[in-house]
Amino acid sequence: DGGITQSPKYLFRKEGQNVTLSCEQNLNHDAMYWYRQDPGQGLRLIYYSQIVNDFQKGDIAEGYSVSREKKESFPLTVTSAQKNPTAFYLCASSMVISSGRGNEQYFGPGTRLTVT
Amino acid sequence: AQSVAQPEDQVNVAEGNPLTVKCTYSVSGNPYLFWYVQYPNRGLQFLLKYITGDNLVKGSYGFEAEFNKSQTSFHLKKPSALVSDSALYFCAVTPAGNNRKLIWGLGTSLAVNP
After folding, report:
1. Binning pLDDT at 50, 70 and 90, where does residue B68 land?
2. CB contact under 8 A, B102 and A99
3. Distance CA A101, CA B94 (A)
4. Most buried residue, A77, B32, B57, B113, by most Cβ within 10 Å?
5. Does B106 touch chain A (CB under 8 A)?
């Protein structure tokens, strides 16, 4: 899991509540990412950030929000607007944003969110 | 449309036998290709990548992969499987250049039987 930490490992919330997932990295990476993983659907990109104070929507950003106030930190908030929030959430980082330059991503251990 | 296919949802192999996990892709231009492994309830771990050069790429834990441009494939291989190799394997691809996103396969579950 490299130098990326996610907390907590398991999170339970009631429907209608916002919840924030933590992601911290000590790899000095510029780029950070949030993915959602559901059984049989692979990884889907929620948000990514190239640099502090900048972030971009991924493929499934609706119902989520992020911030990037520090290089090391990229928290994800799952809002009450997200219709199916129960999932496994993975944070990743890479040296620079461009996967097209061959930079692999390093992943945290994940947070399993259950909303009832 | 750019895509990655992992045609087998599950692969079963006996311990000590060679294993292959298949990946084919469709991207414009030259591809950069990656393999990751995920153990249960864990994050993904990077195994290996192809950027350029030798078509046979060696990675972590004795895994290797062969880039075949004519068949647009990047199959993951290991000469002798271990029970501890049992996990979920993901192939990912991106066109070379200033692309910001990886395109992920849906994953292949590998079961190595003792």
Report:
1. very high
2. yes
3. 9
4. B32
5. yes
* Residue B6 tokens, joined: 């992992």
- Report d(CA A84, CA B110) in Å as an integer: 28
If we measure between CA atoms, which residue out of A67, A61, A59, A60 comes closest to residue A22? A67
Nearest-by-Cβ selection for B32 from A102, A108, A109: A102
Gap between the Cα atoms of A20 and A46, Å rounded:
14
Q: How distant is the Cα of A109 from the closest Cα of chain B, in angstroms?
A: 4
Are B101 and B3 within 8 A, CB to CB? no
Interface of B with A in 27-86 (CB under 8 A): 32, 34, 36, 41-46, 49, 51
